[in-house]
Amino acid sequence: xxxxxxxxxxxxxxxxxxxxxxxxxxxxxxxxxxxxxxxxxxxxxxxxxxxxxxxxxxxxxxxxxxxxxxxxxxxxxxxxxxxxxxxxxxxxxx
Length: 94
Prior knowledge:
The model has no long low-confidence stretch (mean pLDDT 84). The protein has helices at 3-19, 77-81; strands spanning 30-37, 53-61, 85-93. It has one domain. It is of the alpha+beta class and 94 residues long. A 3-stranded antiparallel β-sheet has the order 1-3-2, with helices on one face.
């Protein structure tokens, strides 16, 4: 499986988990998924229609953005130093 297909599969798995977290439908609600990738790749050729969100936006996160409001680290700085890239995917659950 190429990295873009794997990336989309991880996003859709996460969306599926979010959409049924409490047994209720969350269709129409905003969602955010953060996906770590071992290295940067081009997101320009990704077919956004394959992602199970409407109004999809994909952005690269900086290490400073990887903290919760409480200050807890979501992803360790060592991961970034090793070359990993975090992508934030946002949109509306279909």
